[in-house]
Amino acid sequence: MKRILFLVFAVVPVLLDAQEMLRFSLETAPAGSPAPLFVPVPQAGFSRDGQRLALFVVSPQGEKEIPCQAEGGHIPGIWFFPSDKEGRREYVLRMLPGPGVSQGALSLKRDDQATVILRMGKPLLAYNHAEVFPPEGVDALFRRSAFIHPLFSPGGEPLTRIQPPDHYHHYGIWNPWTKTTVNGREIDFWNLAKGEGTVKFAGYLDAARGPVFAGFSLLQEHVYFGERKREHLAISEIWNIRAWDYPRGKLAVIDLTSTLNTPLVGGIMLEAYRYGGGIGFRATEKWHRENSSVLTSEGKVRADADGTNGRWCIVEGESAVPEGRSGILFLSHPSNRMHPEPMRVWPPDANNGRGDLFFEFCPIRHEGWKLNPLENYTLRYRLVLFDGLMTPGEAEKHWQAFANPPIAVLKNE
């Protein structure tokens, strides 16, 4: 009897200390592919020493805690993955005493060269903050920082390539603008050999890891060269790189958000051109015309995709993983300029018939874009990394989950 009484008194303080922060339901069911959902938490001070946020899904069988991760900022809130099996169930967020829960499968590591996001202890991507010089004997103008490489499939297959001999200025995942006008002068930030401009890393802004995501924000500077190669700032760009602890282990999901801002009094004109900006991808040297493929949301393939518009694009090829194939599903957010977004896709006979693979969402492909001073312009992309095959139906579900997430309806406003 004494033991029973002890247990009762031990539990009661925990229940009394629990504070309900929020109760909500989802207005629409998830799109069929799990996707992270953000829910604002209107109450201030949700980060407290010695306490943790706990999210529970409510069902007829009771409550079950599911992973969530807090994010501060101008609009504080939580991120979580609503299961596609949970439909319109109710959720409750509580503040509980005790330490935080497990950090999940994702982690961060930084050294003198790069910041690496790891998944289950294995590298998923590396953002290079240090300059990488070209091979010996190649002009040093081709050196660059501020790019993602390597990027790996869930099974560990490298998907990106940098400094290929045919285009030494190609850098994995990167996005310089090609044809721009600054104060009446044409500046090319893409073709480094011209010596007109470049993009460089300028500093980290934040970093976070937890049971739902791991990632970081950073500042990049698009600079052009004046007399005596003096650098002048044309565009400040914030990259937010975030990997999600995706519930289905055979996929990896990464969000890349770019926010552009120019300090130039007259602004900067991003002229219409067939490539530049957005998000560019130079694929692994393994892929060529015989063992890789492209498929867009509009049914275009590598032979006819260039210059067309799309909501998503599957880029894949042969790999050494057991499934034999690996690839990336690129998703363009509907808030992006010119969405469905124009694309640059190298045709099968690229590079003297070898058929190396290059893909880009290119928002200035058909129309120029004027960036006015001290205004923010944002482009959002999601990369779904996979091994095996990605069907068009699966790709569409991923895009719907990215573009049209469920809406949380608060119960205690």
Task: Describe this structure as you would to a colleague.
It is a single chain. This protein has two helices and 29 strands. It has two domains: 14-100; 106-403, Beta-galactosidase, Chain A, domain 5 (Distorted Sandwich), CATH 2.70.98. A hairpin with a 2-residue loop joins strand 9 (114-119) and strand 10 (122-128). It has 413 residues and is mainly β. The strands form six sheets. Strands 15-16-17-18-28-24-23-21 form an eight-stranded antiparallel sheet, covered by helices on one side.
Strand order of the biggest β-sheet: 15-16-17-18-28-24-23-21
Please give the radius of gyration in angstroms: 23 Å
CATH top-level class of the largest domain: Mainly Beta
SS element count, helices: 2
Classify the secondary structure makeup into a structural class.
mainly beta
How many domain units?
2
Low-confidence stretches: 1-16
Q: Helix proportion of residues, in percent? A: under 10%
Number of DSSP strands? 29
The biggest beta sheet is recorded as: 8 strands, antiparallel
Distance between the termini: 44 Å
Average residue pLDDT: 91
CATH fold name of the largest domain: Beta-galactosidase, Chain A, domain 5
| Reported CATH architecture of the largest domain | Distorted Sandwich
Beta-strand content estimate: 35-45%
Globally, the shape reads globular
